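Friendly challenge for the regulars: who can give me the structure tokens for this chain first? No prize, just bragging rights.
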Amino acid sequence: MLPPLTDLAALLGIDLVLCAGLLRLLAWRRDLGQVRPWVKWVTAACFFLLWCPVGAARLPLLAYVRGISSDLSITLVALVGLGLWERLRGSRAIATREWMALNGVVAAAALFLYPLALGWGDWDAYRAGWGTWGLWSALFAVSLIFWLKGLRLLPMLVALALLAWTAGLLESTNLWDYLMDPWLAMAALFQCAQFGWLKLWASVRRTAAHTADMSR
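First reply, four minutes later:
Bragging rights claimed.
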């Protein structure tokens, strides 16, 4: 007997994330087009093995992982699926500019949402996810700005999250849970911090090289 659609969607999302992580680990330090065939077969086997029932409750392994990770956002699952497709296909589908712009928006949203949701202010932004014109208007405005700038990834992810939310694909009825989750937020914050550090380090090196040239 198949589990309810919400459980099936949540477990499938977790499965994709775990398999993508395994593939990235096994293909460490290799370019997209250099993934060995055995790595792909191991990843495919892992995808199916994680559905095997274990324990007295005869639940799939993914159900136990779900108890730790909770449900993942539609955005994270879509991004992981896209990254998995890129690595298996051997070429980039999304430009680096798109990824960095998305990371910036997700990081900013996380710094805005989670402190307020934890009670660090007088207004709980998480409540807006149960359906407010303010959140819908903000999503439309950000998506329109990105689209006009030639950035298609964020608008498509927002549209996908809205469709999943309308269909009730996850157990949560809050739109924020479809748009982002703590795992996605941490990844975006890390990527932004790494990007900022690399830019700063490159600037310091250029300044040091320029100073050395001037002193000669």
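The chain has two domains: 1-71, 94-204. The two ends are 78 Å apart (CA to CA). Your move, everyone else.
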